[in-house]
Structures are given as structure tokens and as C-alpha cells.
Amino acid sequence: MTRAGRPRGRPPASWGRAAARAPVVWGVSLVAYVVAVLHRTSLGVAGVDAVERFDVTATVLSTFVVVQVAVYAALQVPMGLLLDRLGSRRLVAGGALLMASGQLLLAFATDLGPAYVARVLIGAGDAATFISVLRLVAVWFPARRVPLYTQLTGLVGQLGQVAAAIPLAGVLHLAGWTSAFVGMGAVGVLAAVGVAVAVRDRPPGAEAPPVPRGLAAPLREVLGTPGTWLGFWSHAVTQFSTTVFVLLWGFPFLTVAQGRTPAEAGTLLTLNVVAAMLAGPVIGVLTGRHPLRRSWMVLAIAVAVAMAWAAVLVHPGPSPLWLLALFVVVLGVGGPGSAIGFDYARTSNASHRLGTATGVVNVGGFSTAVVSILVVGVVLDLAEAGGAVALSLDAFRPAFGALALPWLVGVVGVLVSRRRTRRAMAAAGVVVPPLREALARRRGTGARSGLRRSSG
User: Fold this and answer.
1) How far apart are CA 53 and CA 45, in angstroms?
2) How far out from the chain centre does Cα 416 lie?
3) DSSP letters along 16-67, please?
4) Where does the record place the Major facilitator superfamily (MFS) profile domain (predicted)?
5) How many H-runs (helices) and E-runs (strands) does the chain carry?
């Protein structure tokens, strides 16, 4: 980098055009990601309608989302490898068309077979979107701004969750299942057209990255990097329980178990998004300013999320509205907290491996969520068989309590991979001082600064 912050080898004129076009490329791709989140979370507000339409139990309903999220998680690494070869534009546009076709199929499905195929298409298209938009951020913006724009991408994308919680729920109940999901398909097609017209894989004048030869070698290199695994576990432990809540079980928990109206539940889910949008820029700035302390942010968020779950589950009877509001706010912070994992992928791997590394990290939260969503459904059915009322608070307590096990595995994963990552950093000449030593040094610097100001 030159002193002015311009990459070496790029003509000044083309750099000016890139700086002007970057917000457009990011903005259009971001709209596509918002639509992807809308597709992803649509079944969460349509869960009760899906039970009636397909005449299924809680376990079968959970498999709809499990299939979708399992496909999403399973395709992250293949999509990352394709991303490093084909570029973001093709993957985002193609993903939007896949999700649109899935929603159109779901609109007319009345049997389980077509419904499962629809969720597979949605999961596959969704798998291509987020990691592709993150690559655009890394390519089009200066490195010092990437953590902030990564957070903003994840947060603005959650507007799709708001669209699912309020407008989609309204259309679903006013116009019916078919009209709602046909409309979803149309929105997906528009997103694909916008990306094809406005998005480009790299700025004008930028050199094309080397195309990887084969698939095994790039994947081995990424998997052999300790920072990749630190990103994987960071993403998993902060995100998975939020995904379980938002994608399927949050709306039934709030309305049936907690006795809240659909309007109150929608407002709480929206509050979850607002909390994420407010916390994200703060986490992004802190990540950029304190890259050696990212794991402490991950662990702090994980502990806060666990305490929020415990507070709601041990409360006798339905929780008061203020506690539910606090609960969804803390869960909301888990979303931007998981984006710290992508920063580990970016800083630990070569730029031409970024798609693959981001895909591996993204597997963390969603693979854990797949197992957790299914476990919650199974425990709910077992609780009902044991005498609990379907989707009651007594049934949800053990079901959500089972999330403690993947949380514990995730925390251990962060601690172990952090030790390995710091060992690799030390071998490269970067030593991370203990937190107590860093805080003592900071206090000492502050005290000396105060002495200088007082003596002056």
C-alpha cells in the first residue's frame, strides 16, 4: 500500500472509479443478501401454517428447516471453492434464482416431497450468497474498513428477517400461502436481475486473482490454518442458538409457550434485529481496533447469550415482557458476534483462498444449528409424549435446555483453537501478551499521560 492508501499497481484514475462504484456494488449485492435472509427465515413465521397445510408434527416441521440449513452448511465449502473460481457475481445471481424457484415450488406444494425439494433449493441458493458478498467487501474496500463493512453486511441483511416477521406474516394471513410464496419468488428474480446488471467481481484495473488448480490443495491449505478453526468455532458458539430461535422455534415459543400475541412476537423478533444492527458497528470497530483481542469478544458474547437463555428458561411461568425483550436483545448480539469468525478467515488465509476459508467458517454456526434445530424438535415431541402440552413452556424448557451441550463444545473449541492460533502467530513473530499484562500496560500509559497533562 502507498502512503495514500492506494494499492500498488492500480492506476489512479481506475482507483477513483473503483471508490465511486464500490458503494453501488456493495449496495446491490447487499439487497440480494437481504432477500436471501427473507427466504431463509420465511418458514419461521409460517411454521403454524405449515403444520396445518402439511399436517405434520413438530419433529417433521423441524426437518423442513434442518434440510434447508443442512444443505446450506454442506454446500459452504463447495460454494467457497466455486467462489474462488467463478467470482461473486455469478454465485449471487445464481443463488437468487435458485431460492426463487424454491419459493415458487413451495407456493404450490401440498405434499412433503415437493416441500423438501423446495427447502433444498432455498438452502443451496442461500449457501452461495453471504460468502460471495463478503468477498466483494474484501475486494472493493480498503482492508482497514473491511471489519466494519462485514458487520454492516450481516446487520443490514437481517432486514430480511424483519420482512419475514412483519410484511410476510401479514401477506400470509391476508392473501394466503400460495400468494405469499409466489410473491417471494418474484422478489428473488428481481434480486438476480439487479446483481447481473450492477455487480462486478473486482474494481477496474485490479488484477484477477490466481485461479486455484484442483480442489484438494486449496482446501487442505485452509483446513491446515489454525486461524480458520478459530473462526469456525467463534462463528458456531455465538450464532447457533440465535439461528435456532429465529429460523423456526422463536415464533412458536413466544406465541404458544409464552402466551404472547402474534403482533407482540413479531415486535420482539424485530427488536432482535434492531439489537443486532446497533451492536454490529460497535463490534466491527472493536474488531478492527483490537485484532489481538477478538476471541475475548467472542467468549463474552457466548457467556451473555447463555445467561439470557438461562434467565428465560428458569423463570417460573411465562416470562414478563421486559425479560423477553432483554432476552431477544442479547440473542441479537450473537449475530454480529459470529462475524468475528469471518475476520479470522480473512486475516489468517491468503486472499485467493478467501472464499474457501469463509465457507469453512460459515459451516460452524449453521452445522451446529442443524443439529440443534432437530434436537429441539425431537425433545418437544418426547415431552409431549410424556404428558406435556404441545409447544407448551414445560415442553420447551428441556428442549431449549439441550442447547447447553453444543454451547459447551463451542466454548472449548474456541479456547483450544485460540491456543493453536497464538502458537502459530508466535512462530511468525506476533506475540499476543496476556490480557492482564495488556490492561496493566494500558493503565500505565494512561497514568503517564495524566502526569504529563498535569505537569503541563
Assistant:
1) 14
2) 23
3) HHHHHHHHHHHHHHHHHHHHHHHHHHHHHHTHHHHHHHHT--HHHHHHHHHH
4) 25-422
5) 21, 0
Nearest to 199 by CA among 33, 12, 8: 33
Are 206 and 18 within 8 A, CB to CB?
yes
Q: Retrieve residue 261's grid coordinates.
A: 400475541
DSSP 7: P
Q: Which H or E element spans position 146?
A: helix 146-157
Spatial CA neighbour of 281 closest among 333, 237, 241:
333
Non-local CB neighbours of 322 within 8 Å, separated by 6+ positions? none
Give the pLDDT confidence score for residue 417 in this predicted structure: 94
- 163: cell is 420482512
| 444 within a domain of the structure (yes/no) | no
Half-sphere exposure of 146 (CA within 13 A, CB side): 21
pLDDT value at position 145?
82
The parent domain of residue 349 ranges over 19-203+215-431
Is residue 301 a part of any domain in this protein?
Answer: yes
Decide if 321 contacts 207 (C-beta within 8 A).
no
* Structural domain count, the chain: 1
Name the helix (H) or strand (E) containing 245: none
* Residue 188 contacts residue 128 (beta carbons within 8 Å): no
297 vs 137, 287, 290, CA distance in Å? 22, 9, 10
The pLDDT assigned to 322 comes to 95
Residue 155 carries which side chain, given as an amino acid letter?
A: L
Task: Write down the pLDDT at residue 359.
Answer: 83
**Residue 50 three-state SS:** helix
Write down the pTM of the prediction: 0.72
Residue 289 in domain? yes
Length of the chain (residues): 456
SS3 9: coil
Q: What is the CATH number of the domain that holds 362?
A: 1.20.1250.20
Asked if the structure places residue 3 within a domain, the reply is no
CB 73 within 8 A of CB 130: no
CB contact at 8 A, 167 and 41: no
> What is the rounded CA–CA span in Å between residue 287 and residue 369?
25
Please answer whether residues 77 and 255 qualify as being in contact, where contact means their C-beta atoms are separated by less than 8 angstroms.
no
Q: Is 189 exposed, middle or buried (0-12, 13-18, 19+ CB in 10 A)?
A: middle
Closest alpha carbon to 168 in 71, 45, 273: 45
Rounded-to-integer distance, Cα 106 and Cα 110, Å? 8
